[in-house]
Amino acid sequence: MAVFTSLGLSEWLVRQCSQMGINKATPVQENCIPAILEGRDCMGCAKTGSGKTAAFVLPVLQKLSEDPYGIFCLVLTPTRELAYQIAEQFRVLGKPLGLRDCIIVGGMELQTIAMNKPFFWESKSEVRTVDELDQRYILTPEKVKDSYLVHLIQKFEDENSDWSIIIFTNTCKNCQILTMMLREFKFPAISLHSMMKQKQRFANLAKFKSNVFKILIATDVASRGLDIPTVQVVINHNTPGLPKIYIHRVGRTARAGRNGVSITLVTQYDIHLINGIEEQIQTKLKEFPLEEKDVLKILTQVNVTRRQCEIKLESTDFDEKKQINKRKQMILEGKVSSLLML
Ligand SMILES: Nc1ncnc2c1ncn2[C@@H]1O[C@H](COP(=O)(O)OP(=O)(O)OP(=O)(O)O)[C@@H](O)[C@H]1O
């Protein structure tokens, strides 16, 4: 690993990095920072949690410090939460510059920016090595996905004093129901999905980051880029349909060289999806050992609780299909870009 000064970064930036515990450059930083400093267009591709943000934030700050004038940099992100997270990195690293930033989310038109002759760097492996991330699966019968989940969380709670879990699920409705259900079981759970008001999304994320709530139940709105170093476990409540989504989701743990576990709940109908994932990540998922009889003990209680939560949700105005249709209509009418809907 190279030290930052050897990559051409100024002393003040190296000092800022070391205050954040960043002393040696990761491969994506080592390869991209000099190219960006040379003024070349650059595309960097590396595994999750490997410091891609600092790979562009650092050279941007250096260039800005050399000529601190005007609107210098526009960063586009796939989700609103990520926009705030990246702005925070700019603020922390760029503090000595008195950097001013502006976050724009939702409700604006986007324009395409043309790039020519980019420098392209891709790491050999885009996915985690087994050393850092222990990737597991649990084969579950169809309609008892939820009992396994409750049992798993119970197990983590019993075995660890300090724990934090992200559970990914496929729809906003499922996300909402799972949160209600886990709360019935007195778990400290909170949700994050795109049917929530933005203010609530930020508030919930902040509560999870500060460990007030130890379980975040989220849709794929949280699967890209979120950097919460304390997350030890990612549970896929549904098997992701695409390997790329799997890679992004499980990449929310084992960040920056830390260890982590991912557990994917798999039904007999998802085996082909797991095969596709294993092929892409070139790793065989290992089975997560669980005592089935312990799961069966809570089966009825979990099913009844879930049904009660579904009934409770039906009595509210939570209508995911209606929301989706409304958004599609807005995109069709050109009132908003699909990118800004995430
Ligand atoms: N050189 C470094 N040494 C140690 N930690 C680092 C280094 N660079 C960045 N980090 C830390 O690593 C963590 C992950 O960085 P970052 O969020 O940029 O990863 P990423 O590659 O963008 O991940 P993802 O693909 O999931 O978005 C952050 O907490 C960041 O502060």
UniProtKB/TrEMBL annotation:
Coiled coil, from the record: none
Keyword Nucleotide-binding: yes
Substrates-to-products reaction catalysed: ATP + H2O = ADP + phosphate + H(+)
Record-linked InterPro entries: DEAD/DEAH_box_helicase_dom, DEAD_box_RNA_helicase, Helicase_ATP-bd, Helicase_C-like, P-loop_NTPase, RNA_helicase_DEAD_Q_motif
SUPFAM superfamilies linked to this entry: P-loop containing nucleoside triphosphate hydrolases
Transmembrane segments: none
Intracellular or extracellular location(s): Nucleus, Nucleolus
Family to which this protein belongs: Belongs to the DEAD box helicase family. DDX49/DBP8 subfamily.
Full protein name: RNA helicase
Taxonomic source organism: Denticeps clupeoides (denticle herring)
Lineage summary: Eukaryota, Metazoa, Chordata, Craniata, Vertebrata
Name of the gene encoding the protein in the UniProt record: DDX49
